[in-house]
Each structure stands twice: as structure tokens, then as C-alpha cells.
Specification:
Blueprint lengths: L4 E6 L9 H12 E3 L3 E7 L6 H5 L3 E7 L9 E5 H7 L6 H15 L5 E7 L13 H20 L4 E3 L18
Parallel strand pairs: 1-3, 1-4, 4-6
Antiparallel strand pairs: 2-7, 5-6
Helix pairs in contact: 1-5
């Protein structure tokens, strides 16, 4: 039986690049179909509420903004334990919650093999729903890195065809006065 793979996008979309993990899961959901052993989950800032889906996975791929000291847009592949060593450099509560959630999964004897695919953010200041141009430009590279990790873990995917652009529409809901 194929191992269950959970791709977990975390972050706060209200803080610009901080929400990049959620944006990647959105892009994967909209652009690809995955084998039945792959689950995509928008984890947002749910922290301990993610314990159940995490403990049901054999492999966990976390997608997140990672402040590791590199240039904005730098991609990282980290073992989940690396977060413990650098936690003092994190600027968001959800990363502390993620480490704590993994520790609880470990105590329950249900911790999956976990890694983090991340990107150095350019701006995580409040408020803004859009990714910065630098991170938006790197999104395709981040998606490709996550897809490679899914394949390496035993998952498969198919890209969906691009939707056709219907062009401008004539107004149909105008009511004469």
C-alpha cells in the first residue's frame, strides 16, 4: 500500500509573503490532480488543530515561509527538526505551533517523516493579501520543488489543462430603468 503523503501549506495570508505556503497549496489544488495517496491541506495558522491529519500521514511536506537569513526568494529544503534549532529566528506563532504539534505527534508514536519546503520571504509585515513581486516571481520554482518532493515520496500528479480565456462578456444582468 502506498504511503499517505500530506502536503501542508501553512502561514498567514494577511501578512503578505507569510502566506506563501497557503498560496502554494491553492496553486497545486487548482492546477494538478494527484494520486489517491496525496492530500493537500491549507493549514493556515491552525497549529495544534492539525494534529489529527498530521498523525494520519506517513510523510509530511510542509510548505512555508522560512526566515533563514538568505536573500528573498531563496528556496530551502529542511528536515522538520531543523526548525527546532532555528526557532528563535521565526517571526510567526504558527511555526512554534507546528514544532509543538510535531512533538505531540511524536509523543503519540504517530509522527510522520517530515520535511519543510520553504522560501525566504521578502515582507511579512501586516497587512497585505498579495505576495511581494519577488516571491510571486519565485512561486513556480517553489511549486516545482514541492511537486518533486511529492514524487520522491511516492506520489504522482497530472497537470490540468489551462482553462480557455472566454474573453470579455457582454453584460447580461442589466435591467433597464
Amino acid at each position: 500500500m502506498a504511503e499517505q503523503i500530506l502536503v501542508l501549506g501553512v502561514g498567514n495570508i494577511l501578512l503578505r509573503d507569510e502566506g506563501v505556503g497557503v498560496r502554494v497549496v491553492e496553486r497545486l489544488t487548482e492546477g494538478y490532480r494527484f494520486s489517491t495517496n496525496v492530500t493537500l491541506l491549507d493549514g493556515g495558522t491552525l497549529g495544534l488543530r492539525l494534529l489529527d491529519p498530521i498523525t494520519q500521514a506517513d510523510r509530511l511536506i510542509v510548505v512555508d515561509a522560512v526566515q533563514w537569513g538568505g536573500e528573498p526568494g531563496t528556496l530551502y529544503r529542511l528536515q522538520a527538526d531543523d526548525l527546532n534549532r532555528r526557532l528563535t529566528f521565526k517571526n510567526s506563532i504558527h511555526q512554534l505551533d507546528l514544532v509543538e504539534t510535531l512533538a505531540y505527534a511524536d509523543m503519540l508514536g504517530c509522527r510522520p517523516e517530515a520535511l519543510v519546503v520553504g522560501i525566504e520571504p521578502a515582507d511579512i509585515s501586516p497587512w497585505g493579501l498579495e505576495l511581494t513581486p519577488k516571491i510571486a516571481a519565485a512561486l513556480d520554482r517553489l511549486v516545482a520543488a514541492v511537486l518533486a518532493e511529492i514524487e520522491a515520496a511516492g506520489g504522482s500528479f497530472t497537470a490540468l489543462p489551462e482553462p480557455l480565456d472566454p474573453g470579455p462578456r457582454a453584460p447580461t444582468d442589466q435591467v433597464p430603468l
